[in-house]
Design brief:
The protein contains 17 helices and two strands. By secondary structure, it is mostly helical. It has two domains: 183 residues, MFS general substrate transporter like domains (Growth Hormone, Chain: A, Up-down Bundle); 200 residues, MFS general substrate transporter like domains (Growth Hormone, Chain: A, Up-down Bundle), CATH 1.20.1250.20. It has a two-stranded antiparallel sheet. α12 packs across α16. The longest helix is centred in the middle third of the chain and has 48 residues.
């Protein structure tokens, strides 16, 4: 791939994840502070992305794969998204705000898969070329967090407006990307079998695969506690520049990505997944007992464990699916597991996290609301520990072959959003 094309695709990935990181990380802090939304409302708002993830495979299968060029679909969705984000940023009623953010997620979540597919179409060897381009997405998320944290914008509507402006820029930029016409036929009938082929669903008949999918579904429930409420928690316990510090999670994710092949060869699938889920338990225990004085190292530990939590479970899981599925079914199998985890699992997690946070609400003077964070994080740790115990006691998988795919290969197989 020529340097010019690599630079154009890298810029696309940077903008894509800058947009997401700009509005999503600090959402709970803004909604809880100036808008005084409840814990349940914050959980629902953060969970709008999971509803978008549920619908994304159908949108991609109907529109982008069959009807219109990918770059034009991306441009339209991001321009629409810019207007929706700005409109949401000026709302004070939860009903209207939630409706706008929900429609926005219908627009945004399919773009995660579409940016991947557009990049793949321009590559001669995606296994070698995609990783170096996709890493700019993590860079965009990190820059967004550092910028918002350093400017002390976390409890304001400005992150959402910054994301709206970035979405508009991304929409216009997409019109400059290489033409990427649809590969599917307009006359082919769209059905569930096209999106999730019967052969991909049949993988769940394998006992180890079924246990992996069940564990993945349930581990995504406590995951939503982290995504929806960590920034609010860190701000309420007195951490300065919380959004900036939270980018340490993405930095550790990049480091762990590099180390995965080394650990994979020594631990194997089961114990890589066990390590990922164990990190979930430890993270929430750190949050439960950490503080900004002598326990600040625990808060930092909880943040930095994100690399192990995400990479050791989700990236290893992508590699595992890549090994289990036939070549022609790998993209569909990755799409199915993404639908079950980031769609259904995190949707349940958004509802449950909001319910639990609301249950542990403490109202104090002058309308400011705080929460019993120790109880909230202990609940998350217990749920994670139960999933870990279930998986450890029931999952058994013999090694298949000596080849260990690199993380880039898992990214290539995963045509749907992470």
């Amino acid at each position: 791939m020529k340097l010019q094309m690599r630079s154009r695709l890298s810029a696309m990935m940077f903008l894509e994840y800058f947009i997401w990181g700009a509005w999503y990380v600090t959402l709970g802090t803004w909604l809880s502070g100036p808008l005084h939304f409840t814990g349940q409302q914050i959980g629902l708002a953060a969970g709008a992305t999971s509803v978008g993830a549920i619908l994304a495979p159908f949108f991609v299968g109907l529109i982008a794969d069959r009807l219109f060029a990918t770059q034009k679909v991306l441009a339209l969705l991001h321009v629409l998204g810019a207007g929706l984000l700005f409109a949401a940023s000026v709302q004070h009623s939860f009903g209207i705000f939630y409706g706008l953010i929900l429609v926005y997620c219908f627009c945004f979540m399919p773009t995660l898969a579409l940016t991947n597919s557009l990049a793949f179409r321009q590559m001669q060897d995606p296994k070698e070329e995609f990783g170096a381009i996709r890493v700019l997405g993590s860079g965009g998320w990190i820059v967004a967090g550092l910028l918002i944290g350093s400017l002390k914008l976390e409890a304001t509507s400005m992150p959402m407006r910054l994301a709206a402006l970035s979405s508009l820029v991304m929409g216009l930029y997409c019109l400059t990307l290489p033409p990427t016409p649809p590969l599917g036929s307009r006359t082919d009938r769209l059905s569930m079998r096209n999106i999730f082929p019967r052969e991909a669903v049949a993988l769940l008949k394998d006992r180890s695969m079924l246990i992996f999918v069940i564990a993945s579904f349930f581990i995504c429930i406590p995951l939503q506690f982290y995504y929806a409420f960590t920034n609010l928690f860190l701000n309420q316990v007195g951490v300065q520049n919380a959004a900036g510090k939270m980018t340490g999670g993405q930095m550790s994710e990049l480091l762990c990505m590099v180390l995965i092949p080394w650990f994979f060869r020594r631990l194997g699938v089961k114990y890589m997944l066990v390590a990922g889920m164990s990190a979930w338990v430890v993270r929430y225990l750190f949050f439960a007992f950490g503080n900004v004085t002598d326990g600040m190292w625990m808060l930092w530990g909880g943040i930095l464990l994100h690399g192990i939590c995400y990479d050791f479970f989700f990236v290893t899981g992508q590699i595992y699916i890549d090994q289990k599925a036939d070549v022609g079914l790998r993209a569909a199998a990755q799409g199915l597991i993404t639908f079950i985890t980031y769609g259904l699992g995190m949707f349940v997690g958004s509802w449950l996290s909001g319910f639990v946070v609301e249950h542990y609400t403490l109202a104090v003077a002058q309308g400011t609301v705080t929460y019993q964070w120790k109880s909230i994080w202990l609940f998350s740790a217990i749920v994670s520990a139960l999933v870990l115990l279930f998986f450890f006691m029931t999952f058994s998988e013999k090694e298949r072959g000596a080849h260990v795919p690199l993380p880039e290969e898992a990214e290539f197989a995963n045509a749907l959003p992470q």
